[in-house]
Amino acid sequence: MTGKSFSSVWLREPRRSTSPGRSREEIVRAAVELLDAEGLNGLSMRKLGAKLMAGATSLYWYVANKDELLELAYDEIWGEIELPEPSGARWREVTVAAAHGMRRVMLRHAWVADLLGRVPALGPHALGFTSRLRATFQEAGFQGLEIDYATSTMTAYVFGMTIPELAWQVKYAESELTDADVRSLVEHVVKDHPGLAESMNAASALDTREVREMCFAFGLHSMLDGLERRLVT
Amino acid sequence: MTGKSFSSVWLREPRRSTSPGRSREEIVRAAVELLDAEGLNGLSMRKLGAKLMAGATSLYWYVANKDELLELAYDEIWGEIELPEPSGARWREVTVAAAHGMRRVMLRHAWVADLLGRVPALGPHALGFTSRLRATFQEAGFQGLEIDYATSTMTAYVFGMTIPELAWQVKYAESELTDADVRSLVEHVVKDHPGLAESMNAASALDTREVREMCFAFGLHSMLDGLERRLVT
DNA sequence: ACCAGCCTCGCACAGTGTGCGAGTGGATTT
DNA sequence: AAATCCACTCGCACACTGTGCGAGGCTGGT
């Protein structure tokens, strides 16, 4: 009775197939592989069809359009995040583990960055994750809407911290720049900003990866401290 | 002496033009307008050319390729963020204002979400903003790498909190769903997750926009509390 | 008058998502 | 056994994309 077309992947049953290698799950799995290997621009229906030894348009039997396929692929990787059982007493441990889990999955599938701002996380895997994370905050003692606020804050932090990392990673991978090239670019561009230049010098003695991880941990624990304060007051 | 091609917009001088309406700045401004109106997929070189009463390929005189144009557009909107003068004493005020400024600009230019994960923020406007924000944290009392950690944490939070909002906004705008349609979709999809369903019910009595803003403020202040704690210890 | 340089743009190519409608093969009904 | 149906595949075509190339035009200096 919705009147208009109004469709969503999550409202339709997936189509089953007789011939093997041809099902929504298979297609989504192959799409994820292709995305991992070649990025968002590397995924085309024709390439995906070829990978599955099918015509490009055959896939449209299982999937309404490419956007839907991307929604499915997006939800798929939400399923990869390891998340300990909710536990109110050890909510910080659980939350820290969840944050690192999210970050790991994002780094593994750099193309998520392109979908975060386009696809609402409404798939079963995404909801499952969110739901369990929410339960953790609830058991920790948050109440009412603040349960959701805390959950959102936590996921927001991980997204926001990891996305720019992915931007670097992508820019890196697609052009063949050496570390020295990148450094010289940044040095040049940062010239008019003494503060940034100074911090770049300080960081350049250390391993980039390590700095990123320290930064992530610093922000994460700060944020959790802040949330914890909201709790005991 | 870099050996390889290795180019970046930020290393090349923009080309000047004789005929009016044709310059890097004009083109970028028009691109931003088009992006605002039609989103990332709505921007094509041909449409942009038409808007400027120029052939599509004329633009390539001023801009190496579309990616470069997007980098320029991305940096352009960094310049729109209002940021008070750095002030150590009132660093929280400044930071809160900066966060809301970022959020406002993002909501105004929903397509940033598509670029955050693809384009490193190396343009002059982005660096200017970052540099001044950094100065604020420095004057607040942070030291060494922690100045940058705090800065990153803050921007990460704003990005991460706003991006999913943009996803909804986009999905909304491009399909013509009514509020009721959206609610029924979410209700349906959330059925297996009692916690989420409950919180949805609690929130549905309130104005969506208001809830989003309360959530944003809650997380922001939590995060700043956490950072402040790092400071006094 | 000639030339050099900046600047414009038409053409063409390879590639995209996807609607359409014809085809195929196996199961079910008559 | 024949006819019918339906799940499924896919070739073709269309409109559209970014962009390399190279032919032109305009402007100022000699």
TrEMBL record, chains A, B:
<dbReference type="InterPro" id="IPR009057">
    <property type="entry name" value="Homeodomain-like_sf"/>
</dbReference>
<feature type="region of interest" description="Disordered">
    <location>
        <begin position="1"/>
        <end position="22"/>
    </location>
</feature>
<dbReference type="GO" id="GO:0045892">
    <property type="term" value="P:negative regulation of DNA-templated transcription"/>
</dbReference>
<dbReference type="Pfam" id="PF00440">
    <property type="entry name" value="TetR_N"/>
</dbReference>
<keyword id="KW-0804">Transcription</keyword>
<dbReference type="InterPro" id="IPR001647">
    <property type="entry name" value="HTH_TetR"/>
</dbReference>
<dbReference type="InterPro" id="IPR036271">
    <property type="entry name" value="Tet_transcr_reg_TetR-rel_C_sf"/>
</dbReference>
<keyword id="KW-0805">Transcription regulation</keyword>
<dbReference type="GO" id="GO:0000976">
    <property type="term" value="F:transcription cis-regulatory region binding"/>
</dbReference>
<protein>
    <submittedName>
        <fullName>Transcriptional regulator, TetR family</fullName>
    </submittedName>
</protein>
<dbReference type="Pfam" id="PF02909">
    <property type="entry name" value="TetR_C_1"/>
</dbReference>
<dbReference type="InterPro" id="IPR050109">
    <property type="entry name" value="HTH-type_TetR-like_transc_reg"/>
</dbReference>
<feature type="domain" description="HTH tetR-type">
    <location>
        <begin position="21"/>
        <end position="81"/>
    </location>
</feature>
<feature type="compositionally biased region" description="Basic and acidic residues">
    <location>
        <begin position="12"/>
        <end position="22"/>
    </location>
</feature>
<dbReference type="InterPro" id="IPR023772">
    <property type="entry name" value="DNA-bd_HTH_TetR-type_CS"/>
</dbReference>
<keyword id="KW-0238">DNA-binding</keyword>
<feature type="DNA-binding region" description="H-T-H motif">
    <location>
        <begin position="44"/>
        <end position="63"/>
    </location>
</feature>
<dbReference type="GO" id="GO:0003700">
    <property type="term" value="F:DNA-binding transcription factor activity"/>
</dbReference>
<dbReference type="InterPro" id="IPR004111">
    <property type="entry name" value="Repressor_TetR_C"/>
</dbReference>
